[in-house]
């Protein structure tokens, strides 16, 4: 559905996005992850026809956005990270206003608004947007992004700053949108959420691609299985090796080297110590991400 080739965006001498190339399939949930300033929002805005690329191309449904941006915008629903709303307006009037901008017939719009409010658990009867909490306003913004029944949804941090229950609700709602045939691209700092939702994930840093694949592929190709050994021993004179840490009355070893695990286990047994637990630790996407960003995880006490 989407083909991106050599995408680049410059602001003066600063390069926000540098030679990104990827594709997004119809019906896919595609995540974009990166540290602050990595170029995520700029990429999403270029995909939404809100920012013009300095170089490269974007095709959505075989339409070059530089040639026909209006045609592309008609099939996109965009949710920015910060979505200012007309807080003095009643919710239904606000959504009707945007439906008119998209030339949605009024009777179709009213039916769609009723359905969206129900799906999003929004009781909007005679309520102004400014009367809502942040989470409820975020739901209004999501309803606005769907008012034209777009094929493609581009969401920037849809759960940003929300309480866990509202964030979980929005996560499940995004999952339901995929079941209804929507293609979704979104960014989020919550990597647990990304891992559960996304079919594929693009990790970027300094505007450039670091890795692209499913969460399983990323873990397989860019992480090591860690081993955690927990034990008790009285004589620990020769156990002060790298990776062994003391936690109150016991010791913990976290390492990627099974040979070290076997060596320490043998020493503990010979000293008549006791092995409390030995288990493998498969890194979550967040741990892999931190590793790709240069953070050493083998020193953890957990």
UniProtKB/TrEMBL annotation:
Family: Belongs to the ABC transporter superfamily.
Protein name: ABC-type multidrug transport system, ATPase component
Taxonomy of the source species: Archaea, Methanobacteriati, Methanobacteriota, Stenosarchaea group, Methanomicrobia
Organism: Methanomethylovorans hollandica (strain DSM 15978 / NBRC 107637 / DMS1)
Gene3D superfamilies named among the record's database cross-references: P-loop containing nucleotide triphosphate hydrolases
Keyword field: ATP-binding, Nucleotide-binding, Transport
Record domain ABC transporter: where: 2-231
InterPro entries: AAA+_ATPase, ABC_transporter-like_ATP-bd, ABC_transporter-like_CS, ABC_transporter_ATP-binding, P-loop_NTPase
Pfam family, one: ABC_tran
Any one GO MF annotation of this record: ATP hydrolysis activity
């Amino acid at each position: 559905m989407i083909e991106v080739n050599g995408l680049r965006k410059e602001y003066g001498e600063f390069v926000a996005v540098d030679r990104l190339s990827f594709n997004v399939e119809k019906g896919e949930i595609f995540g974009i992850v990166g540290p602050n300033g990595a170029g995520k929002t700029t990429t999403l805005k270029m995909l939404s026809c809100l920012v013009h690329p300095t170089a490269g191309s974007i095709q959505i449904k075989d339409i070059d956005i530089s040639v026909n941006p209006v045609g592309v915008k008609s099939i996109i629903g965009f949710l920015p990270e910060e979505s200012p709303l007309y807080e003095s307006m009643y919710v239904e009037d606000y959504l009707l206003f945007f439906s008119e901008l998209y030339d949605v017939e009024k009777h179709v719009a009213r039916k769609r608004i009723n359905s969206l409010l129900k799906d999003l658990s929004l009781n909007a009867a005679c309520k102004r947007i400014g009367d809502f909490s942040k989470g409820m306003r975020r739901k209004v913004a999501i309803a606005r992004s769907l008012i034209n029944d777009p094929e493609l949804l581009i969401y920037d941090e849809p759960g940003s700053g929300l309480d866990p229950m509202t964030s979980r609700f929005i996560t499940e709602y995004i999952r339901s949108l995929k079941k209804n045939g929507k293609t979704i691209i979104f960014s989020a700092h919550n990597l647990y959420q990304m891992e559960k939702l996304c079919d594929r994930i693009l990790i970027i840093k300094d505007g450039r691609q670091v890795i692209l694949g499913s969460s399983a592929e990323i873990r397989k190709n860019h992480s090591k299985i860690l081993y955690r050994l927990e034990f008790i021993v009285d004589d620990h004179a020769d156990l002060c090796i790298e990776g062994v840490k003391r936690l109150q009355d016991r010791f913990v070893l976290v390492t990627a080297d099974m040979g070290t695990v076997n060596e320490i286990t043998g020493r503990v047994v010979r000293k008549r110590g006791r092995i409390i637990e030995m288990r493998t630790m498969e890194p979550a996407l967040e741990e892999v991400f931190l590793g790709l960003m240069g953070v050493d995880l083998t020193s953890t006490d957990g």
